[in-house]
Design brief:
Order of helices and strands: HHHHHEEEHEHEEHHHHHH
Oligomer: single chain
Helix content: 40-55%
Strand order of the largest sheet: 1-2-3-4-5-6
Length: 261
């Protein structure tokens, strides 16, 4: 069987980008192989198992195209053994946060990979500063000089170098949180559960800033606990490119990868 490393040597960044764009964990083995055979016509991939084909996609996408998929997988690996709850793709005012960690505090991680631009960053920074206790950006090395000019002083910075996370700057506690914006992240059902009413104006008048803060953290923990625990329990059976899919859908990896129990 042709090794993944040998195949990777023949894959361009452009091809890896296209595979990342079209990859779907739910594609059949035949569909996945068909795509690969158009770019690797002379490689012996036909006899590979479905899991091996997914593994090849994983290696191509994460090792050749340094996008947010790689950065999210590194964040999961970095925090998986901590006593926390985490979540992907959180609606945050008009933005969508890439990764959120919740323990005694809420901690945001906005990804700007080496293939991303920084056009939306100032708006994202403004939105997250209204919501979360601590805030980070997780960036490719190519953004380090530019990003320092765009961040508030209280933001922390991780960079990704050689497919590893490195802490460059620790964040400072955020004092710009607005409880009104935090309440907007609750569903009506969650408001009634935590405040006994879904009238946000009444809640804002009746509860202190610290009370809303505490309930905001508790709500996020309750909302995402099951998904994060599922990912933790099954992580060793999941390919990193697929972490977010299994986090969202909680399906046995053996079913998707067609591996025997």
């Amino acid at each position: 069987m042709t090794s993944n490393n040998y195949i990777l040597n023949e894959i361009t960044i452009k091809t890896a980008k296209e595979l990342a764009r079209t990859y779907n964990v739910l594609l059949t083995s035949s569909q996945l192989k068909s795509v690969l055979q158009t770019i690797l016509p002379n490689k012996d991939i036909e006899d590979r198992s479905k899991y091996d084909i997914h593994s090849l996609y994983n290696d191509i996408i994460l090792r050749k195209y340094k996008s947010e998929l790689l950065y999210k997988s590194l964040l999961v690996d970095y925090f998986i053994n901590e006593d926390i709850i985490a979540a992907f793709e959180i609606k945050a005012n008009g933005s969508r946060l890439d990764f959120l960690k919740i323990n005694g505090n809420t901690i945001s991680y906005e990804i700007k990979s080496e293939v991303d631009n920084l056009i939306k960053l100032q708006k994202q920074v403004s939105d997250y500063s209204l919501l979360f206790d601590y805030n980070y950006v997780v960036i490719g090395q190519n953004h380090l000089n530019s990003i320092k000019k765009l961040l508030p002083q209280n933001y922390g910075i991780f960079i990704v170098k050689n497919d590893h996370l490195f802490l460059i700057k620790k964040p400072i506690k955020n004092h710009n949180i607005d409880s009104n914006f935090q309440l907007n992240l609750f569903t009506k059902k969650e408001l009634r559960l935590f405040f006994k009413t879904d009238d946000k104006l009444l809640i804002y008048k009746s509860f202190s800033f610290n009370e809303i803060q505490d309930k905001f953290r508790t709500m996020l923990k309750k909302r995402y606990n099951f998904k994060w625990e599922f990912l933790k329990k099954n992580k060793e059976s999941i390919l990193p490119v697929d972490y977010q899919y299994f986090y969202n859908h909680n399906i046995s990896p053996n079913v998707i990868y067609e591996r025997g129990n």
